[in-house]
Amino acid sequence: MNNPETSLPKNWAVRFFSIFTGQAFSLFGSSLVQFALIWYLTQETGSATILATASLFGMLPQVLLGPIAGTVVDRGNRRLIMIVADAVIAVATLLLAYLFWSNTVEIWHVYVALAIRSTGGAFHHPAISSSTSLMVPKEQLARVAGANQTLQGLVSIVAPPVGALLVAVMPTQNVLMIDVLTALMGITPLLFFSIPQPPKIAAQESAPKKSFLQDLGGGFKYMASWPGLLMLGLMATLLNFLIAPTSALTPLLVTKYFGKGALELGSVDSFFGIGMIAGGITLGMWGGFKKKIVTSLTGIALFSFAIIAIAAAPANSFWVMLVSMFVIGFMMPMVNGPIHALFQSIVEPGMQGRVMALVSSVAQAMMPIGFIIAGPITDATSYQTWFWMAGILNLLIGLGGFFVPALMRIEDNHKVQNENDPAETADQAAPT
Length: 432
Known about the structure:
The protein has a single domain (4-192, 211-423), classed as Up-down Bundle (Growth Hormone, Chain: A), CATH 1.20.1250.20. The protein is built from 18 helices and no strands. The protein has helices at residues 12-45, 48-75, 78-101, 107-135, 141-169, 172-192, 202-206, 212-224, 227-257, 262-286, 292-312, 318-346, 349-364, 367-380, 385-400, 405-408, 410-420, 425-428. Helix 8 (212-224) packs across helix 13 (349-364) and helix 10 (262-286) crosses helix 12.
C-alpha cells in the first residue's frame, strides 16, 4: 500500500489549519445555537420530557444515517460533502431564525431544525474525521488530536457564558444568525483548499467497482472481523444510554433543583470545558497507559464517581456540581482520546468514513431510548434519579471492562485478524 503521507505537500499545515480554523468558528456558532435553543425550551416548558425529546430529535438522524453517511463519505468527494452539510445546517438555522423573528415559532419547529442540523452533522463529522489522516503527517496526528480536544474545551468554556449573555441582551433569532455567519466562515476555506481522497490500492483498482450496498456491507464486515471493536461498540452503547440523558437534564437540575439561572448553567459547561483542556494537556504530556483501552476504562470509572457526587449534592451546594463537571471534563479526553487515536492510526483511510460512522451509530443507538425513558422517570421522581442510575451503572461498566478479554486485547485481536486473513489485506489492513 502506498502511504498517503508521501504525497503531502511541505506546507500541509497551511491547508489543514485554514480548514481547522473555519471549522472552529462553525463549532462555536453551533454551540451558541445549542445553548440558545435549550434555554428557550427550558424557559418555555420546564419539562424534562420536552428537553429529552429535543435531544432525541438532535440525535436520531445521526443514529439512523450513520452507516449510510460513512459509505457516502468513503465513496464521494469529502470536501463537497462538508460544504453541502454545512450549507444545509445554515439554511435550517436561517429558517428557524425567521420563525423566531415573525413570532410564529412552535416547539415542533425547534424539533425539525434540530433534526436537520443533526442530519448535516451525520455527513459532516465522518467526512472531516476521516480526512484528517490524509491531510496531516502520521507523526503529527497526536498533536492534532490534542488541538481538537483543546478546541472543544475552549468552546465549552467560552460558548455557554457568551450564549447566556446573548440570550439575555438579544432575541433568539439574532443568536441564530450568528451561527449562520460562522457556518459561512466554516465553508469559505473549503472553497479554496482541496481535501485529498483516499489513495487507491492496486488490488482495488483492478477489481470490479463495488456497489453502494457492497461498500456499506464492507463496513459491517470490517467491524465483525474485529472482536474488540464489537465489544467497544456495546460498551459505548450502554454508556451513552446512561450519560446522554444527564446532559439533557442538566438545565432542569441547575434551574429547578439548585435554583440557579442562565449564567450558572453556562458556568457548568465552562467548568466542563476547563476540565477537558486540562485533561487533554495531561494526556498529551503523559500519553496514557501502554494499553489505550486501560486509559479509557480508568477514565470511565473515575468520571462515574463525579456523576454520583452530582446526584448526592445538597441543593445549597452548587459548587459540588461545578467541581464534578470539571472532573468529568478532565476524564473525557482520557476516555475518548486513546480510542480516537487508535482508529486513526490503524484503520485504512479508505475505510475510516464507514468505521467511524458505524462506531458512532452504535454508540448513539441507545441514546434515543435513554431520552425517552429518562424524561418521564425524572418527571415522576426527582431531578437526581437518573444521575444516581448513570453514576452507579457507569462505574460497573468501567470496572467490568477490565474483565472482558476481547476488549482488553482490542489492538492485538485486530492485528491477528489481518494476519490470519491476508486475502482481506487490500480492504482491511491498516497502514503501518
